[in-house]
Amino acid sequence: MKKRVSALFLFILMTLTACSSQSDEATATPSENKDGKTEVIFWHAMSGDLETVLKEIVDEFNQSHPSIEVKPIFQGTYEEALTKFNTVAGTKDAPTIMQTFEVGTKYMIDSGKIQPVQKFIDEENYDTSQWEKNIVNYYTVNGKIYSMPFNSSTPVLIYNKDAFKEAGLDPEKPPMTYSELKEAAKKLTKKQGGQTTQYGFSILNYGWFFEEMLAVQGGLYVNNENGRNGNATKAVFNGEEGLRVFDLIRDMYKEGTFYNVGQNWDDMRAAFQSKKVAMYLDSSAGVKTIIDNAPFEVGVSYLPVPDGVERQGVIIGGASLWMAKDISEKQQKAAWEFMKYLSTPEVQAKWHVKTGYFAINPAAYDEEIVKTEWEKYPQLKVTVDQLKQTKPIPATQGALITVFPESRQKVVKAMESLYQGADPEEALDRATEETNRALEMANKK
Amino acid sequence: MNAPLSVKSSPSVPVRRKRAVWTTLEGIVYLLPSLILFSIFLFYPMLKTVYLSFYATDHQGNPVQFVGIENFVYLLKDVNFLQSIKATLLFVCYTVPASVVLALCLALMANEKLKGIGLFRTFFSSTMGMSVAASSVIWMFMYNPSIGVINKVLSLFGISDVQWLLDPKIALISVSISTIWMNIGFTFLILLGGLQNIDPTLYESARIAGVSYWYQLRKVTLPLLSPTLFFVTTVSLIHSFQTFGQIDILTKGGPMDATNVIVYSIYKDAFINYNFGSASAQAVLLFFAILVVTFLQFKFGERKVHYQ
Amino acid sequence: MEQIELVHVYKSYNGKDNVIHDLSVSIEPGEFFVLVGPSGCGKSTILRMIAGLETITSGTLLIGGIEVNELPPSERNLSMVFQNYALYPHLTVEQNITFGLYKKKISKQEQKKRCLEAAEMLGLTDFLKHKPRQLSGGQRQRVALARAIVTHAPICLMDEPLSNLDAKLRAKMRSEIRQLQRRLGITMIYVTHDQVEAMTMADRMMILHEGRAQQIGAPLDIYNHPSNTFVASFIGSPPMNLAKAKVLESLLLFDNGRAMRLHHHLPPSTQQIIVGVRPEHIRLAKPSDDHFIAKVVNVEVLGTETLVTFELTKNEHWIARWSGQWNIHAGEKVPLTIDETAFLFFHENGQRLDHSIPSYAAGKGEHQ
C-alpha cells in the first residue's frame, strides 16, 4: 500500500516537473537560434494583402542580413495585439518588436516596458529629418522619439466616378466643403419606389474619422494642446468643430442621403463596391485594394471641410514599431537594424505602391516604382499631397491619451445615437463627459 | 498468558491509526489531479477576480489602490452598466424560451416514426457541429444590409432595407435570432434523447385509451420529459448569460450598447479599456446573478419536474 | 360481448418476410383465450394487431362481425394490460386508473365510482394516492388490471402480464385474473410464453411457432392430442418423450437395436416415424408386464413425484414421472413398461399420424 501511494506521488511529481520543464523550454526565447542568428520576434496586426507584402519585405531583409532572423507573427487587430502584448510585456514571451497603432502611443510609453529608439538615433546620429515632418511631429513626445514610424495612413474621401457622371456631376471635381458634399450627396442619392438604392455618402462609425474631421478644422480632442503639453485632463472635442461634424451627419442622415454602414470596415467597403453608397471616407491604406476590386472607376480626394473653415490638414494614422526593454543588447541592435531597413526609401516605396500606406521617408516618392505606379494609380498621390499640405499644429499632431480605445467607444456610441434622432450637442457632450471620467480614472493610476 | 495478549493489543491502536492516515492520504492522492486542475483554472481565477474587484488596477492588471466597494457603487449608478443589465436580461428572455420551445417542436416532429426521419434529425441537430465563430460569420453575411441575402429576399416582397445589426431597436433581436439558431442543435438533440427515453408502451396505452394528441402531450410527454426540459432550460439560461462570441463578431456590443451584454462589457472593460477592477466587479455581479437565477430555477422550476 | 375473428391474417414488417402466416381463428365472447409460444413466435404481434397498435398486412380482423382493420385502437372498445404495466410514473394510482376515461365522456362521479370499485376488487383502496414507484410489483400489476377494468370494455388484452412477478405471486395472480375474467364476463386474450399459465388459465389456447398457428383447442385436448411434435414438446413439463423409430410389422425399432413389441396400435407404415410418450405413462414394470430394461441416468425426487431419466438408446434419454418418492439411483438398471395406448406417432416431418384416434379416449380416461 505504502509503496503504491509513494509511487503515485512520484508519478504526479514527475508529470508536474515534466510539464513545467517543457513550458520553460517553450517560453524561453533565446537571443540566438540554432543557426547562430539573432532572432527578432515581430508582432504585427497586418492582415490580408498587407500581411503578404510585409512578409515579402521581411524575407528580403532576412536574406540580405544573414546574421539576423526576423520572425513576423500576426496577432489580430491593433486592439487585440495590444491586449496580448499587455499580458506578456516584461516577460520572456514578449516580442522584440511590437507594432502598435498611433493612439496606443501614450499607452506604450506609460507601460514602461519599451526602449525608446531615441537611444539608437543618438548613438548613430541617425538622421530623422529625412522622415516626413508630420510623422516626426506625431511620434515626438517630450522631445524624444519613442518608436519607429512604419505604416502611416490618412483618411481620404473615396467616390464612385461612374455614379458622379450618371448624376451629372463632374467626376474630376469632388466635393471639398460640407455644402458641396451635401449637394453632391443629394444628387447621388437614387430612389426606386420607396427604397433608396444608392446613398450619397457614408462614414464608418469609428472614432478615427471623427478625430480626423475635427483635426482638419484645427479642433483639439483633449486639453493641454492635445495632451502634448502635459497630461490631458479634459476632453474638448465637443466644441464648435466637433459639433459641425455631428451636425453634418445628423443633417445628411435626416435628408436620407447618408447611409449608416455600422462599425465594420469590410461592410463599409462592401457597401461602396455594391454601389450602395457613392462616397465614403476610408483610410489611404485601403485605397489600392478598393481601386483594384471596384467594378467602376474610383476617385480619391481630400477630406471635406466646413464652409469658410481653413483646411489644417490631417493626423497621421497607422502604426509604429516599438522595441522591448528587457532584452539583450544584441537583440535590440538587430531590431534597430530591421527598423532602419524598413525606413529606407526602397522599402518604403515598395510598401507605398503595394498597400497605399504612404512613405514615412519622402525620398521614396522619387523611386522609379512609385513614379510608374502613380501613373497607373494617380489616386495614390492624393493621399501623399494631403499629408504634405498639413500644417504642423497640435490639432494635426493628434491627441496623446492612454484611454483612446475607451474614448473611441464613447464617440462611436454618440455617432450611432444620431441615427436614432439624438440631439448632436447632447450626444457629443455625453461622449465628452464619459471620456473625462476615463481620463480621470487613468490619471489616478 | 498476559504477555502475548499485551503484545498483540498494544501495537494495534497505532497501526490502525496509521492505516487511517494512509487511507486518507491515498484518497487525497486520487483527488489530487482534479484538485490541482480546479485550483489552477477555477478557484484561483475566481478568487483573484473577487480580489481585483476591490482594487483600481494599472494597465497590466496589477492592483495599485484599494478602493473598497467603489467599483460596485459606480457600476450600479452607471447608466451604461444598467443598459448592459437590460440588454442581458432581454437577450436571455429572447433566446432561452424561444430555443427551448422551437427545439421541443422540432424534437416532437423528429420523434415520429416516419420514413427518412433520420435525415431530418441530422438536419435539426447539425447546428451543434458549427462553431459560434463560423455561424456568426455566416449570419453576419446574411444580415449585411448591402449584400446580405435576408434583405435581398425581403426586397422581393417590396420590404425596404432593414438595418439588422445597425438599428439599436433590432440589433439585439437579430443577434438573438442567430443565437437561437446556434442553440437549437444542442437543445434539440438533448430533448430528442429525452423523448426517446420515454417508454413507448405509455403511448400505446394512451392510444388505446384514445386520448387526443394535445392531451397526451400535456399529460404524458411533457411531464415525462420534464427532467430533460429542466436540464436544457438551466443549461441554456446559464449559457445565454455567458454569451460572448456572436456579440463580438456581429455587433461588438453596438449599436449604442444595445447588444452590450454583461460578458461583453466585462471583456471591453478589461481588455480594451484596461479597467480590470471594474471588469472584475462586473464579473462578480454576473456570477451572483447567475447563481440567484439558477437557485430560483431549482427552487421553483424543479417542483414541476417528475424524476422517474 | 363480441366475437373476435381473424381471417387469413398476415403480418410483415419489411414487405418480404412474413412474421405471421395465414392466421385464422375465431375467439368466442366471454372466452379466456391464450396465445402461447416461445419468444419470437409472433404472439405479441397478433395481440398488438388486435389492439390496433400494429397494422394488418393482409387479411381481415372482425370484432363483433365488423371489419376493424382500419379502426384506431381507441374505437375497438377494448382494454390492454402491458408486460411492464405501462403506468404513468408522475400520476397517482387513482389518476392512472382513470387515465383516459374522460375521453369516453364519463362523468367525474362515475369515474370516481368505477375507480373505487376496481380498487376494492383488487385491494388497492389504501394506495389510491400513492405514486407507482411506491408500490410493489404485485400492486403495480393490480393497478394495471384496475385500469383495464374501469373502462368496462368487453374485450381485454393482456401481454405477458405476470412475467415480471416472482413464482409465488404469479401463481396467485393467475387465479385472480381468471376469477376476475369470469366475474366480469369479459372476453380475454392473453399472451404468454409459459405453458403452465396457458394450461391453467385458458378456455382455449392457440400454440404458435414461427408465426404459424400450430394447434388451437382446449388445453387438455392439446395436451393429449398434440397435432405435431412441436406442440407435443412445448406443452407439458417435463415435455413429451420423443424418439425416432422404424415400424417393422408389430415391432418398434429404435436406434441401437432397442425394440418394443406392440400388439394393436401400430401405424400402417414401415417408414421412419417419431414415437412420443408422456413421462407419466412410463411405469416401473410388474413381473407380469412386457417390459424393457433401461439404465437410469439421473433421478430427481421432487417430493410429490420422482423424475427418472433413463437411457432409451445410447444417445436418447427419456424421462419417466412416477408419483411418490422413489429410492432409485443413477446407474441402476430398471425394468420399465409403457401402456400401448399411450404411444403417439408422428410423421418424420413432425405431423401427427392419423392413427391416434383410439388413444384419445384412453388418454382422457386416465387423467380424469
From TrEMBL, chain A:
Residues 423-445 are annotated as: Disordered. Keywords: Periplasm, Signal, Transport. GO terms for cellular component: cell envelope. Residues 1-20 form the signal peptide. Coiled coil: none annotated. The keyword Kinase does not apply. One of its GO terms (biological process) is transmembrane transport. The keyword Nucleus does not apply. Gene3D superfamilies: Periplasmic binding protein-like II. Its main location: other. Residues 427-445 have a biased composition (Basic and acidic residues). It is found in: Cell envelope. Belongs to the bacterial solute-binding protein 1 family. PANTHER family: ARABINOSE-BINDING PROTEIN-RELATED, SN-GLYCEROL-3-PHOSPHATE-BINDING PERIPLASMIC PROTEIN UGPB. This is Carbohydrate ABC transporter substrate-binding protein, CUT1 family. It comes from Parageobacillus thermantarcticus. The lineage of its organism: Bacteria, Bacillati, Bacillota, Bacilli, Bacillales.
Automatic annotation (TrEMBL), chain B:
Residues 85-297 form the ABC transmembrane type-1 domain. One of its GO terms (cellular component) is plasma membrane. It comes from the Bacteria. The keyword Metal-binding does not apply. The chain crosses the membrane at residues 21-44, 87-110, 122-142, 170-192, 222-241, 279-298. It holds the Pfam family BPD_transp_1. It is found in: Cell membrane. Gene3D superfamilies: MetI-like (1.10.3720.10). Signal peptide: none annotated. Keywords: Cell membrane, Membrane, Transmembrane, Transmembrane helix, Transport. GO terms for biological process: transmembrane transport. It is a multi-pass membrane protein. Belongs to the binding-protein-dependent transport system permease family. This is Carbohydrate ABC transporter membrane protein 1, CUT1 family. It comes from Parageobacillus thermantarcticus.
Automatic annotation (TrEMBL), chain C:
Residues 4-235 form the ABC transporter domain. It comes from the Bacteria. Keywords: ATP-binding, Cell membrane, Membrane, Nucleotide-binding, Translocase, Transport. SMART domains: AAA. GO terms for cellular component: ATP-binding cassette (ABC) transporter complex, substrate-binding subunit-containing. It holds the Pfam family TOBE_2. The keyword Translocase applies. Signal peptide: none annotated. One of its GO terms (biological process) is carbohydrate transport. This is Carbohydrate ABC transporter ATP-binding protein, CUT1 family. The keyword Metal-binding does not apply. GO terms for molecular function: ABC-type transporter activity; ATP binding; ATP hydrolysis activity.
